[in-house]
């Protein structure tokens, strides 16, 4: 998606350790008209499959998923990274390692929000090593729901997460795929 690539080049910052900061428009401060265009693109790419739920993981994926959900006219459910007092009933749980936080989270989703009748589209902001996406896939499979695909805003194509997901036969649509990054520059596929 050319609009996204241009915005990454204009406002993104490459940090040591293969970190791409897009916090000025995507995942800290959110440019809503811009993210609205991303939502339209996800709808265009997944218009051929039935979607009843959009699934993401807290926190950065929530805003993107919500904006995309308006085009599918479906609810968003998100997996939480911490148990809280307001979570009750049966839960789907898995463990997910965060690439940027270097921490393993117990990811939790209430079973009442995802069932075998659902057709799920997973949406998230980044795909690097694939841990978060694999955790969400595990939750969808535990629910017996149909996984229709995954929509990722930015994929780090030089890491193995995207290839691992594709090798599983899962439809993966990334709006921008970074081919390579150095401490000062990046190139797109």
UniProtKB/TrEMBL annotation:
Stored InterPro entries: PRTase-like (IPR029057), PRTase_dom (IPR000836), Pur/Pyrimidine_PRTase (IPR050118), Xanthine_PRibTrfase (IPR010079)
All residue ranges annotated as the Phosphoribosyltransferase domain in the record: 52-154
Amino acids binding 5-phospho-alpha-D-ribose 1-diphosphate: 128-132
Localization annotation: Cytoplasm
Catalytic reactions of this protein: XMP + diphosphate = xanthine + 5-phospho-alpha-D-ribose 1-diphosphate
UniProt xrefs under Pfam families: Pribosyltran (PF00156)
MF terms (GO), sorted A to Z: xanthine phosphoribosyltransferase activity
Gene Ontology biological process: purine ribonucleoside salvage; xanthine metabolic process; XMP salvage
Transmembrane feature ranges: none
Pathway membership, UniProt: Purine metabolism; XMP biosynthesis via salvage pathway; XMP from xanthine: step 1/1
EC number: 2.4.2.22
Residues annotated for xanthine binding in this entry: 20, 27, 156
This protein's record includes keyword Kinase: no
Keywords: Cytoplasm, Glycosyltransferase, Purine salvage, Transferase
Quaternary assembly: Homodimer.
Role, per record: Converts the preformed base xanthine, a product of nucleic acid breakdown, to xanthosine 5'-monophosphate (XMP), so it can be reused for RNA or DNA synthesis.
Similarity comment: Belongs to the purine/pyrimidine phosphoribosyltransferase family. Xpt subfamily.
Name by which UniProt lists this protein: Xanthine phosphoribosyltransferase
Organism lineage: Bacteria, Bacillati, Bacillota, Clostridia, Eubacteriales
